Predict the 3D structure of the following.
Amino acid sequence: MELRTLGRSGLEVSRLGLGLAAIGRPGYINLGHAQDLHGQYSVLAMEARAHRVLDAAWAAGIRYFDAARAYGRAERFLGSWLVLRDREPDAVAVGSKWGIAYAADWEVRARTHETRDHSAQALARQLVETRELLGLHLDLYHVHSATLENGVLEDAEVARALAGLKAQGVAVGLSVTGPGQADAVRRAAGMRVDGEPLFDVVQATWNLLETSAGDALREAHAAGMGVIVKEGLANGRLTERNAEAAFAPRMELLRREAARLGTTVDALALAAALAQPWADVVLSGAAMPDQVASNAAALEVPWDAEAAARLAVLEAAPEEYWETRKGLRWN
C-alpha cells in the first residue's frame, strides 16, 4: 500500500488506516455492530477479535492505527497486539485521542457512554493513561472532537501543554465533529504557540453524505497539515447494511455506480474519500477481518469524474447529516 508523509508531522502513513472505535468496546453506533460481535462481549473475546482485525489490516498493508481514550479498551488491545506481534515503533504510525473518556462500564446500552473534559488537567491525566498502554508507539495525540462551542481551541493552558508534548517528539492533532467542522479546522490551522503552528494533523468527517469540511481541509492541507478522514462510510449508512426505506433511492444509485466500476458499495464510498487530493489517510472502521479486505478494495476502484458527478446528489445539509447521526442507536 502506498505510504505518504502526514503533513508536517513527518509520520509515514498508509493511505488506508484502521480506526478502532468499533472493536474496542461492546457498544457502538455503527449499523450492524451487534451483528459483527455475535454477542461475544467478554474482554478476552473482544481482544481476540481486535487482534484478528489488526492482523488483517497489517496483511492488507495498513500501517496507521487510530485509537482514543473513549474507545473502551482500544488502546489496550492495540498495545497488546503491537507487543505480541513484535511491531517496532518505527514500523507503524499510531494515533490516539484525549478529551473524551469511556464511561459505559462494558455495557452496550449504558445510560452514559462517554464523558467529556477538554481541560489541561484532563489532557495530563489521559496522556499518562495512553502512554501506559501504547508506550513508545504513540506518535500522534489528537484533541478528541474539538469544536468552537466546547472552547478547547481557546484554552491557552491546553495549547501550551500540547506544544510541550510536541517538544517531546509526539505530533499533535485534533479531530473535529458536527456541522461546524469547517470553522474548527480553520481556527486550528491558524493557531500558533511561540510563533510556531500548533497542530500538525486534523481528523475530520468527510463522506458522500457530508462534504461540508472539504474546502477547509484542502486549505489546511495546503498550509502543511496532515489530513485524516474518519467516518468515510457514515457509520455504515454508506454500506449494504443501510435498509432505511427513505435511503433506498440513494442506495440504488450507489449500487449502480458500484456495478459500473466493478466494486462494492463500501469500497466505492471509501474510494470517493481517497480521491480527494487533500486526504492523506482514510480510516476503515472495520470490525471483522473480511470488512478490512472489502474496505481495502477501495484502493483499486477506478474512481473517475463521472462517479464524482453522479454521486454528488447524495450530499445532505450538514445539520441534517449530524442530526441523523445523533439518532443512531448504540448496539
The chain has a mean pLDDT of 97. The radius of gyration is 19 Å. The chain has one domain: 3-326. The chain has twelve helices and 14 strands.
